[in-house]
Amino acid sequence: MAVVGVSLLALAVVLLVSVFLLIAMARAGPLTKARAKAVAALCAQRGLVAGVATGDFALLGPIDPRWLTNAFSSSDRGLAVADFNRPAGKHTEFFSVLTFTIPGLVMPYVAVTRRNLIGITVGGPPLVELESTEFGEKFTIRANDRRSAVMLLDQGMMQLLLDCEDVSFDMVGDKVLAFINRAAEQAHQPAEPIEFELLFKFRDGFVQRLPDMLRAEYAPPS
């Protein structure tokens, strides 16, 4: 009798969990569709089209294309954006990612990540400390070449990151990979693509504020 009782209890738990999952899926469906529609409209304003190429997110390393959703890119392959859901053991990491190209630049690797958040790449070069206490309290900086990181993170660039405070980024060569850890965001309507809006704001500001002497110092070999 005890065995039968345990079996019935286990069956009841399985049925209850299944019901909860079905309810969650039913609720998530309309939100997922609403988000996809809002993202598509936002990307269309920038002339982006649905779909990305295999190498667009090369800085992420080998990934399963199924981890990318709401993916859009420019016709010249210079910009791509997507939601990125990556399995991590028993859990899933939720990011929104944007990658873009800075022509005429060969930058040593640098990573600027919001403190107390996991980065999007594993490991990294040595830590770099800047003179700005405010910036150092909010971001962790790693770089293969300290000088390049200091040149990149001038007052204008630091202010951009403070203004886009949910955005972190990795950069190497002529590629920038900006990302937002969606699990750590403040509460908002799931259908609102605020991550994409912030990533586009970061990209526009980054291109405008990139120091001229960085382009001169780290130009491709002639």
Labels describing this entry:
single chain; 222 residues; alpha+beta; nine-stranded antiparallel beta sheet; 6 helices; globular
Could you state the order of secondary-structure elements as H and E? HEEEEEEHEHHEEHH
For the sheet with most strands, the description reads:
9 strands, antiparallel
Number of strands: 9
What is the CA-based Rg, rounded? 21 Å
By secondary-structure content and strand pairing, the structural class works out as alpha+beta
- How far do the termini sit from each other? 83 Å
The mean pLDDT is: 84
Describe, in plain words, how this protein is organized in 3D.
There is one protein chain. The chain has one domain. Residues 17-28 have low confidence and may be disordered. It starts with a helix and ends in a 5-residue tail after the last helix. By secondary structure, the protein is an alpha+beta fold. It has helices at residues 2-45, 133-138, 146-152, 155-163, 194-209, 212-217, and strands spanning 49-50, 68-73, 79-88, 91-101, 107-114, 127-128, 139-143, 167-173, 175-181. A hairpin with a 1-residue loop joins β8 (167-173) and β9 (175-181). A 9-stranded antiparallel beta sheet has the order 1-2-3-4-9-8-5-7-6. α4 packs antiparallel against α5 (194-209). The protein is built from 6 helices and 9 strands, in the order αββββββαβααββαα.
